[in-house]
Every structure is written in C-alpha cells, then in structure tokens.
Amino acid sequence: MSDGGTTWRVDQLPRGLEELDEAVLDEATRRLGVTASGVESWRVSRRAIDARGRRSPRFVLSLEVDLREGVVPQVSDGVPARRVVVPEVRAMPRLLPGDARPVVIGAGPCGYFAALQLAEAGLRPVVLDRGREVERRAKDVSRLMGRGEITADSNLCFGEGGAGTWSDGKLYTRVGGPRVREVLETIVRQGGPERILVDARPHLGTDRLVSLLKRFRAALTELGAELRYDARVESIESSGGRFRAVRLASGERVEGTHCVLAMGHSARDLYARLAQDGVAMEPKAFAMGFRIEHPQALIDRLQYGEWAGHEALPAAYYELKAQVGRGASEVGVYSFCMCPGGSVVPTPTREGEVCVNGMSHAARSGSRANSALVVTVSPERFGSLLRRPWEGHGALVGMGLQQEAEAAAWRAGGGAFRAPAQRVADFLAGSGPGGELPRSTYRCGVTPAGLAGLYPAPIVDALRLAIERFDRRMPGYGGEDGLLLGVETRTSAPVTMLRDRQRLESPSMEGLYPAGEGAGYGGGIVSAAIDGLRVADAIVSSVSGETVGDRFGGEGR
Fold it and tell me: pLDDT tens digits, residue range 452-491?
C-alpha cells in the first residue's frame, strides 16, 4: 500500500486497433483500485503490437498514472502494476578544462555521446573522424549508390554519425537500466521524435538521423568541443605506458590526456596498426551471411493475416532465430537489422569488396522488406573457415574471413559494387543463378549468381537449414518472391579490445579507453551510446578524483 500523490505504472493493457489510448484508462484504474476522479494525469509510457495467434492484432500499452494527493491505491497481488520510483541521479562534477584534453576517435553514437558527456562536465574534447560531416557525406553516399564511385573515408561506414546513419536508425536494445532512457531523452532534446520514448521498438529512420546529427554537432560546438572531419588517425602514441597523442594521416600530431577509441567496426587499417603496436585485443564471435528481400505485402500478410493493410498498423516486422546442426557443428542463425519498407544499401569502404546492409526512412513506406540472415561464427572456427592462411595479426583473423567473403562477392557481382543475388528458392535447391530475379531495392544493381560459392560450406549449409525452418514458420519466406543478396559481413566487430572492468582503460596503455561497437562493447546505436557515456564517466572520475560511474545507483555502469 502506498502514500497518496504517487505515480504508478500499469502494464499489459490491451487496446484494439480501432480504439483510442483513453480506452485503457478504465482498466488501469480498476487494477489500481481507484476511481477516475482520483487520477491527476496519465500518459502512455510504452506501446507495443501483439500480432500473435489468429486473433486480431492489438496494441499493448503501459500507462503511468499520477494519483491525486490522498488517493491510496489498492493493488492486488499478481496485478502488473508498480509504483514508479525515479532513480536519484547524482550530478556530474563540473570541471575546469585545466590541462585535461580528451581526444575522441570517431563521430558515431559512441564518440558523440562520450564527447557530449565530457563537454557537459566542463572538459573540451577534440573529436576526430576520418570521414566527413553528414552534409558532405550524403553527397559521397549518393555518388556511391548512383554511379558506383566510392570515397574511401566517406561512405556508409565512415563519417559523422557512423555506420548507423544510413540504416534504419533502430533504437531497440536488449541493454537494460536507466541509461537507455538517458540516451533516448538526449536524442529527443536534439530533435528526435518523442514517440521513441514510448515505442517498444523505436526507430528514427535515415531521413531523421541526418537532421538530428546537425543539431548534435551544434550542441557539442556550443559546449566547447572541437570537431574535426577528414581527420583519419593512423597511430596512437604513448610514453611511459600512458597515452600522449594521435598521429593523423596528414602527419599532424594531436596531443591529449585521454583517448576514447570509438572508431567503429570497419576501421581495418587502424585495427591492424593498433594490433601491431601491442594494444591488447582478441578475436570475437560475429555473424555473417546474406541480406534477404521480400515484398513488404507478403510480410504484412504473414504477420497480420487478414488485418494486413489496416491503417493503424505499421509495416510488419519479424524476428527469426534457429539453432541448426548437431554437437560441435551446431550454430545459431538469425535475422538481424530487419528493415520494414526499406532498401538494401552498399557498405564497402574500398574498391574490390562488396558487402550490404539495410536501411529505412522514418515512415517505412517502401514496398520491400529486408533483413540480414546470418550465421554466428565463433573464434574457434575462424581458422577452419578461411580459404587461405591468414597472414595478419592473430587477433584479426575474423577480419580475414570478412575480407574473403567481400572479395568473392565483388568478383561474383562483376564490379562497380553490383551485388551478387539469387532467388531464395534457387539457393535452397542448390541450383545456379536461375532466371530473371525479383526486383531489388539495391541501387548499385544486382548480378544473378550462385551464392553458395561465396562462403565455406558450413555457413551455406547452416543458412539453408535455417531458411527451410523459417519457411515452415512463415510460409513463403523461402519462396519465389524472396531474394538473397551477398554478402552481409559487418554485423559487428570481429575483435574485442581488452579493458579494465572498473576503470575501462586498456591494459596496454593508461589513458586509452576502447569503446563502442568497434571495440566489441556495443551492438547498435543505443548500446554504443551507453558505452560512450560509461567511458566518459570513467574519464571524468580520473580527472576529478570523484567516482561518477554510480550516478544511477550502479545501473549506469
């Protein structure tokens, strides 16, 4: 039982497609054991879609209900309702810049959120990104998609916003804790839509990300951060075991006291240099496979049944996973980065390689759905899957697997970043390229090809087994309307850069903080941003002598 004037969250409130949100308030008050007159205000705190089974799809809401002073709820055991307790957040120490000058490598979500936290604490970080700011980057991306001409340091992987800028802008994460809300609220303050605070699977869309990044950049500049683009880092310098500076490709030396290494998962040249220079890292499991396209109308019918096309329903989403094989050969196969109403995009960073990803705009109104369909590959299997002996650093052998598949896809596509493609049904049958392909959204063009030759047999076999299983769950998934494009290789970093569990510093160099997806500590926009905040907290702790990582009662770290 509670004192009056409190806020309560009531979960699992069903709402029909034709109903308004207000329709669930009566059920919420009934569960709380109060009357409508006892409610001061209320708001939707979460909205999800339940399309399971054969009944009509419905929304499932959570409400936060503010009770009037003196109103005491009567909540029965087992009722999904709880009092909302706002965690006490201790203020970040406000520092004078002094001699501290953090250097942040990378202007993706990890780097930008780390820089924002550092700047708000009073430090003046310098952010270095090998790519270009989003306006110029957009022109380079258009040239790649339209003419097949790539700019090595400004493309869908490199540049302001990182690899997530030309994607679906997914903000869904399995990471818990109050820092998820902190990231989402920061995005809203920078111009993101407020619905991301409510949607169970929030996303921004590429069109929203571009304008949001401009505001983020302006906020950082106003706080005193220095942002530099076309600034590719070639090496990191230390003396006495401590970080001292970074050396740019131009030859310029940028000194600093701390370094946030938020370089993203595609900076292969920097991975190699850091490994050569002794920065501690080890191979990490990642996933590789293909991107699969279907008509969005097919996915809508499979997920919504007879209610497909209802104006209240968004373009349908799916999530699939399976364990295939037996014993030591068992592997996980799953869909990844599913983009309703989206398009397939090129993600190479140089000539001679083809790899793909998916993106959507905010409305997700396109006629095609796409998703990665990938196999988990563990470090223990890297060596056996390579077609040629790996001559690079041992920690980077997974990178060799990626490069082999991307080079094979380039050859099969015929150059100019055309993607090799095959009907799903033909891939399952083990046949050749087949006849005319279904329409694809991939703007660089597709070339009919037998995709089985792009990967070693264990990966191909696992994909075939999984697609057959998925087709039984979603009839038509493996049919004539489905199209596979190769290859999807950059799902995450193939390495983990080691760091101390508490201080978050590299054991190889004091003051060096590996962070985000490229270091193996994030798997998307939100988790990478959270890791950037954690690392920024660690740096502020180092400078101030105060422990700031427990500002959220320990949950933030």
Answer: 999 999 999 999 999 999 999 999 999 999 999 999 999 9
Taking the model in full, what pTM does it have? 0.94
Query: How far apart, in whole angstroms, are the C-alpha atoms of residue 472 and residue 102?
Result: 53
- Return the axis-axis angle of helices 109-120 and 178-189, rounded to nearest 10°: 90
Which parts of 190-316 fold into alpha helices (H)? 206-222, 268-276, 296-304
Q: Which DSSP state fits 308? A: T
Residue located via tokens 């700031």:
548
Distance CA 66, CA 180 (A): 23
For residue 550, name the pLDDT band (cuts at 50, 70, 90): low
Structure-token match 């950049």, residue found: 217
Please state, in angstroms and rounded to a whole number, the distance separating the CA atoms of residues 521 and 314.
31
Residue 218 confidence (pLDDT) above 60: yes
Nearest to 557 by CA among 519, 531, 522: 531
Q: Given strand 242-248, what is the order of strands in its sheet? A: 233-239, 242-248, 253-255
At 96 the pLDDT is 67
Any idea where the domains of the chain sit in the sequence?
7-83, 102-282+495-544, 286-488
Pairing of strands 258-261, 102-105: parallel
Long-range contacts, 518-521 (Cβ 8 Å, 24+): 518/106, 518/110, 518/261, 518/262, 518/263, 518/264, 518/265, 518/266, 518/267, 518/493, 519/261, 519/262, 519/263, 519/493, 520/284, 520/492, 520/493, 520/495, 520/496, 521/496
**Domain range 102-282+495-544, CATH class:** alpha beta
pLDDT surpassing 70 at residue 120: yes
Compute the distance between CA of residue 149 and CA of residue 228 in angstroms, rounded to an integer: 24
CB atoms within 10 A of CB 389: 8
Whether the CB-CB separation of 259 and 103 falls below 8 Å is answered with yes
Residues 6+ apart with CB under 8 A from 251: none
- The terminus-to-terminus CA distance of the chain in angstroms comes to 32
- Same topology, domains 7-83 and 102-282+495-544? Answer is no
pLDDT for residue 547:
74
Q: Which of the four CATH numbers 3.30.200.20, 3.30.530.20, 3.30.70.2700, 3.40.50.2300 does domain 7-83 have?
A: 3.30.70.2700
Residue 64 near residue 45, CB atoms below 8 Å: yes
Phi, psi of 208 (to 5 degrees): -80, -35
Peptide bond into 487 cis (omega under 30): yes
Mean confidence (pLDDT) of the chain: 93
Using pLDDT thresholds of 50, 70 and 90, give the confidence band for residue 173: confident
